[in-house]
């Protein structure tokens, strides 16, 4: 028969003279519901004696990753920022040929100035 450790069989490791209530297992808690833009509800539990200003108004929803707020009727909206640039965004940023030529001339002048070959 293998045995190990000094714990008595059936006892909990670390269960010292304090009871479970002293360690927080049965501490008073309040349930706060959060809703995201998709309608998913997430319930988080906070200590009952925690001040109201320390309870967050917005969290990230674990179901969707979207921001979730405490107001069921008006949850936080999904941000409109693009996570990456689309091809159309790059096309909109393209410069006119005149601007491109001016940038190239400026770059060449700086390069020639560094080399000492101003022409």
TrEMBL record:
Oligomer status and interactors: Forms a complex with the RNAP catalytic core and with free principal sigma factors.
Organism per entry: Agrococcus versicolor
A Pfam family matched in the record: RbpA
Lineage, highest ranks first: Bacteria, Bacillati, Actinomycetota, Actinomycetes, Micrococcales
Gene of this entry: rbpA
Region Disordered, residue ranges: 1-21, 57-82
Family: Belongs to the RNA polymerase-binding protein RbpA family.
Summary of the function given for this chain in its UniProt record: Binds to RNA polymerase (RNAP), stimulating transcription from principal, but not alternative sigma factor promoters.
Alphabetic keyword roster: Transcription, Transcription regulation
Protein's name according to its UniProt entry: RNA polymerase-binding protein RbpA
């Amino acid at each position: 028969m293998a045995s190990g450790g000094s714990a008595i069989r059936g006892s909990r490791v670390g269960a010292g003279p304090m009871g479970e209530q002293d360690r927080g297992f049965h501490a008073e808690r309040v349930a706060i519901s959060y809703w995201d833009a998709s309608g998913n509800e997430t319930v988080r539990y906070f200590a009952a004696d925690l001040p109201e200003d320390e309870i967050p108004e917005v969290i990230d929803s674990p179901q969707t990753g979207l921001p979730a707020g405490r107001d069921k009727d008006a949850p936080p909206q999904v941000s409109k920022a693009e996570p990456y640039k689309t091809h159309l965004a790059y096309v909109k940023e393209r410069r006119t040929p005149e601007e491109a030529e001016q940038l190239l001339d400026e770059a060449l002048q700086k390069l020639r100035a560094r080399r000492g070959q101003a022409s």
